[in-house]
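Technical annex, item 7. During the second reporting period the consortium partners agreed on a shared format for inverse folding records so that results from different sites could be compared directly. Each record opens with the tokenized structure and is followed by the designed sequence. A conforming record, contributed by the partner at site C, is shown below for reference.
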């Protein structure tokens, strides 16, 4: 009888143990699934928030670059008009600083594109730009760019070739002083070529004209201005991408 009772006891308890073990495993599985669902939801929300922040930051930087480009174009174009370097037909002139209305938005759009491309290209090449990354250096770069543009209409040389060589040296000096990166030089050259071709098309179609053109309807020093402008806008874009955090000089 004792053996029969032990046998009955063991037989009756075994299913209960298995049932308890199975229910515990199901509970752990449900909890694990619930935790994974929560983690996935949190990560999804975090990614969405991060994407929204990046998009907002990109729009903010684009607007700042557009404003800077439009303002510089307005001021520098006014200088060239006063010095009779560029001539516009009367029908395209407006009362806004006696400049053509389409120049500020076109230059602002170009500045936004170039300024956003600079940090993207640095990231793509894996070469983060760290040379003179501070707003004081950026402001000096802007001042030098304005000085180069001012020199293009103020300096008097025997011929345009001498002026073009002088401005080319000044533009390369600006790049060497405030940039010194391969991406900056490459984008500066690309900006100069594309902007010069676009300007030549405008002049060829009679939108406006240059006095004393010596390089396919335009002045030969114009690519130098576009190159230095591309480098300047690129430095502004890089600084905006850093969020305004100043870095020590790395000469």
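Designed sequence (site C submission):
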């Amino acid at each position: 009888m004792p053996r029969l009772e032990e046998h009955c006891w063991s037989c009756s308890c075994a299913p209960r143990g298995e049932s308890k073990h199975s229910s515990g495993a199901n509970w752990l599985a449900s909890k694990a699934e619930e935790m994974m669902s929560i983690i996935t939801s949190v990560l999804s929300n975090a990614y969405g928030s991060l994407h929204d922040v990046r998009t907002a930051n990109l729009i903010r930087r684009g607007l700042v670059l557009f404003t800077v480009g439009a303002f510089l174009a307005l001021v520098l174009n006014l200088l060239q008009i006063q010095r009779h370097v560029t001539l516009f037909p009367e029908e395209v002139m407006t009362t806004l600083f006696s400049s053509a209305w389409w120049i500020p938005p076109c230059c602002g759009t170009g500045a936004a594109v170039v300024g956003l491309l600079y940090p993207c290209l640095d990231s793509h090449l894996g070469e983060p730009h760290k040379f003179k990354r501070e707003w004081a250096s950026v402001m000096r770069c802007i001042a030098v760019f304005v000085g180069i543009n001012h020199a293009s209409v103020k300096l008097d040389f025997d011929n345009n070739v001498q002026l073009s060589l002088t401005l080319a040296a000044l533009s390369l000096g600006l790049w060497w002083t405030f940039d010194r990166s391969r991406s900056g030089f490459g984008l500066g050259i690309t900006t100069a070529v594309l902007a010069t071709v676009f300007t030549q098309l405008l002049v060829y179609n009679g939108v406006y004209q240059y006095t004393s053109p010596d390089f396919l309807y335009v002045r030969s020093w114009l690519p130098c201005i576009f190159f230095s402008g591309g480098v300047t806008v690129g430095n502004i874009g890089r600084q905006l991408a850093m969020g305004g955090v100043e870095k020590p000089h790395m000469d």
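The helical segments are 2-82, 103-125, 135-154, 160-178, 182-204, 222-241. The longest strand covers residues 86-87. All partners now use this format for quarterly exchanges.
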